[in-house]
Amino acid sequence: MNFPKDFKWGTATASYQIEGAAHEDGRGESIWDRFSRTPGKVLNGHTGDVACNHYHLYKEDVAIMKELGVDSYRFSIAWPRIYPNGTGQINRKGLDFYKRLVEELLESGIEPAATLYHWDLPQALEDKGGWLKRDTARYFQDYAAAMFKELGDTVKQWITLNEPWCSAFLGYGNGVHAPGKSDFNSHLHAAHHLLLAHGLALQAYRELNLKSEVGITLNLAPQYPASDSAQDQAAARKADGFQNRWYLDPLFRGFYPQDMPEFLAAVAPVIQPGDFDLISGAVDFLGINYYSRSVVRSDGQGGYEALPPQGPVTHMGWEVYPQGLYDLLVRVHEDYGPIPLYITENGAAYPDQVEQGRVHDPERTAYLQQHFAQAAKLIEAGVPLKGFYVWSLLDNFEWAFGYERRFGIVYVDFETQERIIKDSGRWYQSFLKGLARG
Ligand code: IFM
Predict the structure, then answer these.
(1) Is the CB of 391 under 6 A from ligand 1?
(2) What ranges in 211-349 are assigned the alpha helix state H?
C-alpha cells in the first residue's frame, strides 16, 4: 500500500466515551449524564461516570499512542467541562485538562486534532430547549471562539461537530440517543441549528486568522439500490437524501436538497436569511466517518426500506463492506469537491476476550487492513484523502450499548483500568513502522 509521506495516521476518541471524572473539577452535567441515568436508555444502566478514567490516565494513553507511532490524535472537548451551564464564565480547571493533554501530545510528537462537539451538550442548555432552539447555536459560537483563543494553533485540526445527523436524528428524531426526544419533523430543526452552529463557529475561527485547519465531520453511508428498477433507484436516492445529502448540500452548495419536499416544509420555519451563507462558509477539509453501507429497496408506497446485511457483520450488526469507503469518497469528491478529505473514524466492534494477557482480534485487523487498502486505492485514483483515524484508541462507552461493544485497538479492563494493546493495535503499529515516512 502506498501513501504520501505527509498522510496523517491517527486514532480517535470522544470525551464522554473515555474521560470519566464526571463530577470533578467543576464539570457540569451533560445530556448523556442525564440520559444514561434514565432507566432503559443504556444497556445495563451503564454511564460515563468513570469510563476509561482518561481524565486521570491521559499520560498513559498518550504514551500508548506514541508507542503505536501515530501522527495525530483526534479527541473531543467536553463543553460542560468548559462551561458547566453552557454559557457564562470559563471553568479554568476544565480547560486546564485540555491544555495538559495538548501539551503532552505535542511533547510526544503527536498532533492534537480537537472536535468541539461530540454529543455532550450541557444539560442546562437542553433544559432551555437544546438544539431545537436557535440560541444554542449562538452559545456554541461563544464556546468555540473561546476554545480557538485558548488553544489556538496548538491544535492542528479543529472539527466543529461530529456527526450532526446522529445528534439531530438519534437525539431528537427517534430518541435512541440523548436527549431522547422523538419527533421526526423537529429533528430537522435540530439539524438546522447544528449546521448553523457549525457556520457560526467557522465565522469565529476565520476572524482569528489561525494557521491550523478547520472542518466538520459527517457520518456518511453509501446507499445502494437493491436492483436496477426505477423504484429501487428512487428509494436509494431518498435514503441518500436523508443520510447524506441533507448535510452535504447545505455545507457545500448552500441549500437543502430540493427533491425532498416534506423535509423542506418541516425545516422552513427555522431558516432565517443569511443562514446558508454561514453554513456554507469555506472549510479546510471534510471529515468522513465510514463504517458500513446500506442496500435499500422501494417499500411500494413511495418510501424505502433497508435490506438485511448482505455479508459478514461486526458486533454492531453492521455489514463489513470496504468497497463502500471507496465508492463513497469518490462520489463525495466528484459531487462536492475539490475539498481535502479525512477519514476521521473507521473501525469495528468485536466481542474481545483476554487470553493469557493477550487479545487476539483477527477480524478487527482484517477490517482495518481492508479499509486501509481502499484508502490507498482512493489516493491512486486522485481523491485528495489526507489522513485516516482509527476508531477507536480505547474500548469505551459505546452510547446506548454502554460498555458492551468494544471498538478499541487497545483493550480496557473497566474494573482495573488496565490497558492491553490488542493484536490489531500491534498490527497498526507495525504497519506504521513499515511505511516510508518523511
Ligand atoms: O462510538 C461512535 C462514535 O462516538 C461516533 N461514530 C460512531 C462510533 C461507533 O458507533
Answers:
(1) yes
(2) 230-240, 246-252, 261-267, 275-279, 323-336
